[in-house]
Sequence to fold (274 residues):
Amino acid sequence: MIQDIYPKIYHNEYKELVPSDYDFILVFDKNRVLVRYERDHLRYPVKQELSAFSCSFLYLFSIDEYRYFLAYTEETITLPGYGYEDVRIFRTAISRHNAFAGITAHHLFDWYRVNQFCGQCGHKMVPDHLERMLKCPVCQNMVYPRISPAVIVGILNGDKLLMSKYAGRSYRSYALIAGFIEIGESAEQTVQREVMEEVGLKVKNIRYYKSQPWSFTDSLLFGYFCELDGDDTIRLDTNELSQAGWYTRDEITLEDDYLSLTREMILQFKEGRV
Fold:
C-alpha cells in the first residue's frame, strides 16, 4: 500500500527546522504540486532551486535522512524543467516513497490552509513550537491535524464478494463499500449502516482486517470483512454507486496496484485468503 515504503522509514516527529540547500521543498497550488521527472521518477525541487523566490518554509517530516518542507510565498513559483501536476499523480508515481511523501505533504498543506484563522474568535493562528499544532494567541484555542476515520467493507456471500463502482467520481475501477464513521458510532456500526445505506444488505460476523492512512481524503481507513446475513438482493443507492454485484474469485481480474487497502482486500479474496 502507499505507506509501505520499507526499507525506508517515515519520521513524522514535529521539529522546528530550517531547510538546507538540498532539502526537498513541496510547492502546492490548491490540488496541484510542482514536480519534475528524472528517468520517469518523481522529483521535487530543493531549496537551492528556489533562491530567486521570497519563501518561508515549514518542516513537514523526514524519510530516512531526506527532509521535506512546505513552501509559502505570495509569488507564483515557476522553475525550468518543473510543472504543476494534479495530486492524483501520487496514485501511480515512481518512486513510491516520494509519492507517499507528496500526498502526506498535501494532507498537511490542506490542514494548514483551512485553519489559518481561529474558529472561536477569528484571529490569525500561529504554529506551535513544540508539536504539530496551531494555536490562537488570543483565546488559546488549539487545533491539531484532521484525520477522518472511515471503513472499507468486504462483504462475503459464500464464494462471492460484493464489488461496486462509485457514481460521479473520476475513479472508475471496482471498489468495496466504504464510508466515513459518524459521531457516536463504532467502526463496526458504521460497517452495518454503510452496507444497508448503499446496497440494502444486512451483514454479520464483522471482523477487522487492517488499517491504512489515506491522505487523498484526509482519512484513516479501517478494513473489515463480514458475511451476508440473509437475502442477497442488492438495492443500489444510485447517489453513491453506479453499480454493484456479486463476483466469484475467477471473475475478478484486478491486479495489485500496491497502493490501496481496497485493492489489497479484493485480492485477499481472489487468492482465497479470506
DSSP finds three helices and 17 strands in the chain. The longest strand covers residues 203-214. The chain has a mean pLDDT of 94. The helical segments are 96-114, 187-199, 261-270.
